Structure formats: C-alpha cells, structure tokens
C-alpha cells in the first residue's frame, strides 16, 4: 500500500492543498512551526482516526474555521482508493472510503497501516505505563479490528461501573448494577489480555533481533507483558476491590492498569538503563512493528518520521534509515541529515514554509 496523494483543507496551519508523494522516501524540509508535523498528523489521522498529538480533535481545525478535512489517495497495484476524514468544530467526525460513509471510525483501522517515529517515541522505555499501554493499543488496533471494538466496549463498561461506584453513597441501590458491570469487564478484559500477550509474543523476537544489530550484539533486549491481574482472578478481584473502589469512585484493577517490562541484559531498562540504552530499546521496539505489520498484513506500513533523526546519533540514524529500503516513508527535518544523503537522489524532497508544501 502506497499513498499517491494527500489533500488537506483547514487542517491546522497547512494551506489548503493536494500533495503528490513518491513511492519511496519523501523528505519535508523546513523550519519549525511551518507545517511539517501537521502534514504527518493529517496522514496519521487517515490511518488511525486519531491525532498524533492533540487531546482535543477540534484543535486540528484551523482557527476560525468550522471544519477541517484530511484525505489520502492510496494505491495497491493497479487498485486505487480514496479515504477522507472530516472534522467539525462541534466534535463530530466522519470518514468515507471512495465516498461511501464508514459507519464507525474503528472500521478504517488497518486500511492504511502506519508506524510513527517521533522524539516522544524514544521515551517509550522511560515513560510511565500509560505510554506503553497506548503503544500496545494503537498497534493492536491496526492489526485487529475486533481488539479495537473490545477495547472501546471495555472503557464504556468501566465508565458505567465507575458511575455506579460514585453513586452508591447517595443511592445504595446503584450497587445492584455492579455484578453486571464486573462480569462484562472480566469477559472483555480477558479477551484484551489474550491479544496483548499474542502481540508481545510476536514483536519481542523482532525487537530483540533489531536491538542486537544496533548494539552490535553487546546487549540482549527482553520485552514481556505485565498484566495487573491474572485472567483466572479477573472478576474475583473486581468484586474483592469493590469497597476500596467505592471510596475512590474508580476501578483499581484491570487491563487499564497493565504494563510491559523492558529489560537489557536482565536489568530493568527504565530504572537502570542509560539514556542511550533506553533510546536503542525504544527504537528497536518501534522498528519491530514494521516486520510485524508486514507479516500480518502482507504489506509494508507507511513510515512517518517526525524530526526523529536529530534525536539520534549517527549509528542509530544509520540503522533507522537502512530500514527504509522498499518502504514508503515521509520524513520531516530542518535540514538534510548526512544519513539521508543516500536517499536524497531518489527521494521526493519538498520545502515546507508557512503551511505551503512545494517541490524543493
């Protein structure tokens, strides 16, 4: 799958435009705050239905506008598909594939597999559990639509359970619903746990192999799933924690508390790894996504590299750039790094200035 063209209207600070992309490396060069990241965000929105960075989707709409649009024209062989996302200032969002409405945004996941690399991704190891859960969920949602719907339903049920917990003090009968919510959370939670374990079992060998290459076989990386509760005790623990949960008005155990452990040579990388080791581990895990998507989707993902090379030393730059062969990538930078020189002759190089994207 390749992106042939992108379109944007009223999207952040980008000028309304249609931009053609090459099948290999596409390098966007420009100063900060000119629209490079916004361009990647528009593509990521089409791939996942979510923003790369905004907590509120209306923040992607240009100031003063009522709605924004992002679209991509995708090619696979001779087939061509057009995917469009429309955002409205009232919070509504709509998607179409070849002008046919997509009833649920989750249905577009997997249509355009994408892997992102940004300075924030290098913090995967040293960040808190929430960032690692987000990594698990976003990658699994691209691979497995059922997982995406289970995850959405889980959070919906947990929200209802939390509302019941908060209501018990003033309306004790609200607790009558807890058995139902506990049962539903346990069923959904156990399915999610099973898929997270499956995902990490698959990605761990790829990450280990990639880490050995980057560290020149000096270090061994291990990635393991750390659920907050066993599937056998899921519902039992929910019931046992009701008194505590009622006091705090929230659910204290479940898949929303899970984590993944990342160790180097048997030592916890978050606590004991150097900054260089943490970055190497994060990079290896992210690069492993590429192989995993290839294996499960039968196609290479689109790579979105947002000013990542300036955060890496020359050795890590070389390994990342070396992985771009045969893959469509969109790379943002303030200047052509030495590691990109090998790609420059065959790449589409574009200048980004004041929201305008033009061939360099």
Give an overview of the whole structure.
With 360 residues, the chain is α/β, with parallel strands linked by helices. It has ten helices and 15 strands. The strands form three sheets. A six-stranded antiparallel sheet has the order 2-1-4-5-6-7, covered by helices on one side. Strand 14 and strand 15 form a beta hairpin. Helix 4 (178-214) crosses helix 8 (275-297). The radius of gyration is 22 Å and the shape is globular. 38% of the residues are buried. The mean pLDDT is 90.
Distance between the termini: 25 Å
Q: What is the CA-atom radius of gyration, in angstroms? A: 22 Å
Mean pLDDT across residues: 90
Give unreliable regions as ranges: none
Our count of helices gives: 10
List its traits.
single chain; 360 residues; alpha/beta; 6-stranded antiparallel sheet; 10 helices; 39% helix
Write a compact overview of the structure shown.
By secondary structure, the protein is of the alpha/beta class. It contains 10 helices and 15 strands.
Mind sketching the topology for me?
Blueprint: E1 2-9, E2 17-20, E3 25-29, H1 36-48, E4 67-76, E5 79-88, E6 93-97, E7 100-102, E8 114-117, H2 129-143, H3 145-167, H4 178-214, E9 221-226, H5 234-240, H6 242-248, E10 259-264, E11 267-268, H7 269-272, H8 275-297, E12 302-306, H9 314-322, E13 329-333, H10 341-344, E14 348-353, E15 356-359
Parallel strand pairs: 3-13, 3-14, 8-12, 12-13
Antiparallel strand pairs: 1-2, 1-4, 4-5, 5-6, 6-7, 9-10, 10-11, 14-15
Helix pairs in contact: 2-3, 3-4, 4-5, 4-8
């Amino acid at each position: 799958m390749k992106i042939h063209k992108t379109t944007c209207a009223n999207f952040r600070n980008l000028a309304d435009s249609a931009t053609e992309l090459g099948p290999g490396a596409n390098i966007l060069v420009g100063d900060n705050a000119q629209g490079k990241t916004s361009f990647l965000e528009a593509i990521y929105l089409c791939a996942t239905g979510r923003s790369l960075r905004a907590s509120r989707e209306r923040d992607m709409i240009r100031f003063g506008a009522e709605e924004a649009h992002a679209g991509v024209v995708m090619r696979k062989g001779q087939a061509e598909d057009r995917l469009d996302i429309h955002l409205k200032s009232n919070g509504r969002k709509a998607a179409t594939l070849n002008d046919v409405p997509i009833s649920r945004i989750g249905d577009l996941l997997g249509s355009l597999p994408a892997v992102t690399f940004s300075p924030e991704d290098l913090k995967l190891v040293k960040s808190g559990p929430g960032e690692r859960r987000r990594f698990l969920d976003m990658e699994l949602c691209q691979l497995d639509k059922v997982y995406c719907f289970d995850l959405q339903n889980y959070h919906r049920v947990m929200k209802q359970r939390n509302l019941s917990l908060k209501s018990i003090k003033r309306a004790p009968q609200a607790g009558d619903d807890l058995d139902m919510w506990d049962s539903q959370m346990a069923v959904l939670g156990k399915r999610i746990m099973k898929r997270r374990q499956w995902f990490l079992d698959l990605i761990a060998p790829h990450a280990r192999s990639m880490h050995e290459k980057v560290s020149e076989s000096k270090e061994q990386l291990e990635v393991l799933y750390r659920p907050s509760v066993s599937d056998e005790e899921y519902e039992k623990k929910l019931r046992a924690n009701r008194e505590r949960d009622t006091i705090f008005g929230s659910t204290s155990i479940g898949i929303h508390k899970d984590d993944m452990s990342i160790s180097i040579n048997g030592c916890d990388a978050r606590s004991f790894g150097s900054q260089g080791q943490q970055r190497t581990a994060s990079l290896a895990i992210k690069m492993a996504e590429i192989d995993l998507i290839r294996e499960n989707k039968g196609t290479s993902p689109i790579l979105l590299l947002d000013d990542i090379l300036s955060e890496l030393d020359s050795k890590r730059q070389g390994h990342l750039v070396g992985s771009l062969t045969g893959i469509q990538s969109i790379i943002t930078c303030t200047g052509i790094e030495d590691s990109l020189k090998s790609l420059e002759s065959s790449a589409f190089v574009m200048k980004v200035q004041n929201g305008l994207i033009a061939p360099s």
